[in-house]
Amino acid sequence: MNMEQNKPGDPDSSFDTDGVFSLSKFPPEFHADRLIKGLALQRDAKIVFAAGLFRDEAFVYALARLNSNGTLDDDFAGQGVTYGNFLKDKPATGGKVVIQPDGKILLLGATLSGTDGWLHLAMARYLETGVIDESFGEKGHLIIENIGDKKFREDSDTLRVLDDGCLLISANFESPDNPDFLRSAVFRFTPDGVPDTRFNGTGRLDFQASTSSPYTRINTCLAQGNKILLAGHALIDGLDKAYIARLEANGSLDKTFNCASQTPGLLILRIDERNTAFDDLARRSDGTLIGIGRVGDAFEKTKQGLLLAITPNGDPHLMFNNGNPLLTKLNNEDGTHWNCGYSQPDGCIVTVSGSYPLHIARFLPNGVIDIGFGSSGFITLDTHTASEPIQLCRHTDNRVLFSNNNVGLGERGIGLIRRYLG
Predict the structure, then answer these.
(1) How many CB atoms are located within 10 Å of the residue 67 CB?
(2) Taking a C-beta distance cutoff of 8 angstroms, is the pair 404, 379 a contact?
(3) Which of the ends of the chain has fewer CB neighbours closer than 10 A, N or C?
């Protein structure tokens, strides 16, 4: 065997076709758009993903499972995929996917409402076999109400399962007349899909990073023991500023986080008077937090990928880039924007930039790029992403699982899942 052809960052040839699974292999009754919306890994290394599909002249959500070798798992729902609507006869799409410790599968998604005609956040729960779990919500489904006169913004959701089995969700809502005007909310539900009134009295918290901010966007949420971490960006003093906030279990701001700053409970980051954002938040096994995002507007060719490591209580982590934000630019044509990432068991950080061409990079625990991964620390994909989301998922043996919706087939693209050696 030529080991040079099997180094970290190479496509995993044991996964479907040359390391790539395509939704073009779905049954022919699914046509037009075939978008991957959520990605998760079971303990047995089978891959579960959510999709947005078009069937019988209607948009539906789908949930599917692959064997560890990247082929459709016929033991799941009889053909490897199941589909449906959150509301009868209303268009739907899938969203984030999480595997519960008991093996049940949680699926976020979106549906058009029968009352106002707007997009609403929705959720479903499935048994490990691919059968809807009717003990959850309303016969397996749950519709989450919008904020006031706002509608849910598709692909802006995050889902986590807390240690007590409760469900934590973050989402963003936009004005129908002005999509740039955002409101954000955090929800907590009991394991069976009932609002958890221990959280802010209602199970829902409308969140603003600053009372002076005309909008706040939550891009991810994370549990930290019984605390809740939020990360995103907010318009403050005329600039988008990246933030990480920590909430108490009841939804109040935890002012022991970043307590030495002028904004206890909240870490706010601005770099060089440029718009700055955290799009994801990773946690290492030692509790270190990694903020993942960008400096510069998403459309700027001069934008840079942003990584920031902090201690569990919000102080600079001096062992990562000497406690300073790490800015990276791999692509001079379109800049770099770390859309998402995660921490490996060894503390290395894997990130992906969705700017064309796409880059998947790996950094050592101290912030130095890992030149042993791919070509000098990163993989370059000569491909265009047609629509959100872009996702990374940690696989076994440090292999990297990546999905995006590539240009092709329908107007909004064709979903691909790729696996790389770690």
Answers:
(1) 18
(2) no
(3) N
Asked whether residue 344 carries a pLDDT value surpassing 90, the answer given is yes
Give residue 3's pLDDT: 45
The CA-based angle 122-58-84, given to 5 degrees, is 45
* Residue 177, phi-psi category: left (phi > 0), alpha (psi -120 to 50), beta (remainder): alpha
The answer to whether the peptide bond before residue 176 is cis (omega within 30 degrees of 0) is no
For residues 101-119, one letter each, b for 16 or more C-beta atoms within 10 angstroms of the residue's C-beta and e for the rest, the string is eeebbbbbbbbbbeeeebb
> Which residues, 6+ apart, have CB-to-CB distance to 364 below 8 Å?
347, 348, 370
Determine the straight-line distance between the first and last CA of the chain, rounded to whole angstroms: 17
Amino acid residing at 320: F
Distances from the Cα of 327 to the Cαs of 188, 239, 335, in angstroms?
A: 34, 18, 11
Would you state the structure tokens that stand for residue 182, as one six-digit string? 């955002």
Residue 2 in this model has a pLDDT that exceeds 50: no
- pLDDT, residue 387, reads 81
Which contiguous run of DSSP H or E holds residue 389?
A: strand 385-394
The dihedrals phi and psi of 33, each to the nearest 5 degrees, come to -60, 135
pTM of whole model > 0.85? yes
DSSP 3-state assignment of 275? Answer: coil
pLDDT for 180 equals 72
Q: Which of 35, 25, 26, 28 is nearest to 407 (CA)?
A: 35
Percentage of the chain lying above the pLDDT 70 cut: 97
Nearest to 348 by CA among 311, 377, 391: 377
Backbone φ, ψ for residue 277 (5° rounding)? -150, 145
How far apart, in whole angstroms, are the C-alpha atoms of residue 374 and residue 406?
Answer: 21
Asked, as a colleague might, if the bond just before 357 is cis with ω within 30 of 0, I would say yes
Segments in 195-312 forming alpha helices (H)? none
